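Here is an idea for our session: we take a single protein and study its fold together. To get us started, please write out a protein record for me. Start from the sequence, derive the backbone structure tokens from it, and show both lines together. Go ahead whenever you are ready, and we will take it from there:
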Amino acid sequence: MKEFKVTLPTSDGPMDLHGFVPDVASGQRVPAVIVLQEAFGVNAHMQRVCRRVAELGYAVFAPELFHRTGAGLEFGYDEFPKVRPILGTMTNNQILEDLRVAHRHLSQLPYVDSSRIASWGFCMGGWAAMLAACELPLAAAVSFYGGGMVNPRPGIGFTPILDRFGFIRCPLLLVYGAKDTSVPPEDVQIVQSKLTAIGKTHEVEIYSDAGHGFFCEDRASYHRASAEAAWIRATTWLKTKLG
């Protein structure tokens, strides 16, 4: 596997994109996954996720969505007060531009099959993965405990995208923890009902013993059994959509 960073231009300055690419034979094109960060940066946890996905044969790329504030920004899971001001400055259009820049770059790589690109996001990245599904020609999208899709959040600049669901172009897998106080059950139900009402292909997985961030082994909310089950669920589902 090769690990590297590339710097891509956006209208607000350079954005680093972390790459994790398996060994690819000459002339081979593989599916790709855009991994979208939690609110704590493209940190050690997110990079471990990227490596695990790449080990399955996908080309994986993780954009730094905090690049307008600074490059390489990472925060501890007990440092959310430092993160909140950054989230307050971020808009839907800014994040969408970052997604488009990353997707365009992947689509042009000689070893990526541009018809088999997926998004997979966690926390705020789960929201961004759904935004990508609304606006980009993806083959699939996975959202782990993505909140903020139904109601505005105080102090958060990016806003709900429920009204954009009609533009979704790909199948979805949405994963939640039943004990997640950040994404209440009524929000999950609204999202699911909306997708059903407008005929979008989707599956919802809810883990009864899990809370917010249950997939991250570095968080106090980590729940091993749910995390292991969610990994199998998501990667098996992705294989059916991307090959």
Q: What stands out?
A: Residues 31 and 116 are 5 Å apart (CA to CA).
